[in-house]
Amino acid sequence: MPDVDASALLLVSGKVRSDADFVFYNQPAHASGAVRHEGKKTGADGVTDTLAVDLGRVEPAVERIVLAASADGGSFGRVPGLRVRVLDAASGAEIMRYESQDATVETAFLLGELYRRQGNWKFRAVGQGYGSGLAGLATDFGISVDDEPAPRTAPAAPAPVRPAPVRSEPVRPTRPAAPAPPDPVPAPTPVRLSKVTLTKDAPSVSLAKQGGTSGAMRVNLNWQMRKQFRGWGAKLGRAVANHSDLDLDLCALYELSDGRKGVVQALGNAFGALHQPPYIHLDGDDRTGAVSSGENLTINLDHKDRLRRIVIFVTIYEGARSFADLDATVTLQPQHGAPIDFALGECTVPSTVCSLALITNTGSDLVVQREARFLVPERGVSPQRTIDYAYGWGMNWTPGRK
After folding, report:
1. CA distance to 273, 385, 399, per residue, from 262 (Å)
2. Comma-separated ranges of CATH 2.60.60.30 domains in the chain
3. Could you give the CA distance from residue 117 to residue 352 in angstroms, rounded to a whole number?
4. Where is the composition biased (Pro residues) (predicted)?
5. How far apart are CA 287 and CA 5, in angstroms?
6. pLDDT of 310 strictly over 90
7. Is residue 293 predicted with pLDDT exceeding 70?
8. What's residue 292's pLDDT?
């Protein structure tokens, strides 16, 4: 079945003002803070992809917010139960719903839109299909799209320096040189729509082939309790989630090329470092799971030759007995290259620790392998030690606090 993604366009006179008015998986938040792409969740009702809209923060010039969906890997005729639901963020109550039942070969849909009418915001269903995918829909509203990687060219060789000829004539007065023209304003960089979704059938990806082997790679984990906000939809207002007592910790086991091993985690304040070993940094200990913050690891791929392997994993610190009660998604976003995302899937065991991904340096490439392994620690064995046993790290562990 195709992978479906939600997106939103903020329009003035029927068009975007710039590419920044396009909110989607590669550009998940509008600069105004009014619209956010919160990502996918997997639950009993299927996969949802959520857009959060804070109408109070929408700029006065914006007249419409178009809500769209695109299918990656097939057409919407293969997607059952496609619908858009408009929910109140505070209560979760459904305000409106639109179900698409006649999709065939379309690869993008303009499902509905929020629009201003006499000082109030209203919603209307649209249901306009596109056979040209997200790129066709986006360009229809003025977005410049470029999915091709920029060509790499060798720097031009400097011109040989030749000695200036000696002139014997007397120096004559010259007119003042005309002022140099101003430097041209660089054209904005078109948005890139490429992405990678790891599944059980396609669990690994080469970072080299995606052009993502340099710069910083951000790993984001976000989560919610399964009872929260079911269905694909847009949430009006600010999201309010009742999982403040739930605390998941994003962690990483690392092995450097010189054989040193360690862990990056909030427990014990082992937050790591980005510009010195281990070249992995945890930015903090988040307890909300919101996609705008969540738990974030950053890996410095400029030092990839110093990294041998990394296991990214998550533990339940408090607030839940098992991952069976949770929906969680993971996104790896290289600074250069397509984002890589996957959902953890259904947990069927009383697991409190899950390995998310294994990143391996093969010598000529970095390979990301989707793991999604739910592990059950033995009595008296910590989640960290359980991951260690599963991947053969061989480290000594002592109790830690945060």
Report:
1. 12, 12, 15
2. 3-140, 196-230+241-391
3. 49
4. 176-189
5. 26
6. yes
7. no
8. 43
Measure Cα distances from 122 to 10, 116, 212 in Å: 15, 6, 41
User: How far is residue 205's CA from residue 207's CA, in Å, rounded to a whole number?
Assistant: 6
The overall average pLDDT reported for the chain is 80
Q: CA 78 to CA 105: how far, in whole Å?
A: 9
Q: Domain 3-140 carries which CATH code?
A: 2.60.60.30
Cβ–Cβ under 8 Å, residues 384 and 390: no
Q: Residue 196: which of 55, 43, 26 has the closest Cα? A: 26
pLDDT tens digit sequence for 320-342: 888 887 777 788 888 887 888 88
* Domain at 196-230+241-391: CATH architecture: Sandwich (2.60)
Q: Which residues contact 337 (CB under 8 A, 6 or more apart)?
A: 207, 210, 211, 212, 213
Three-state DSSP state, 144: coil
What tokens were used for 209? Answer: 């082939």
DSSP character at residue 15: B
Contacts for 167 with CB less than 8 Å, ≥ 6 apart: none
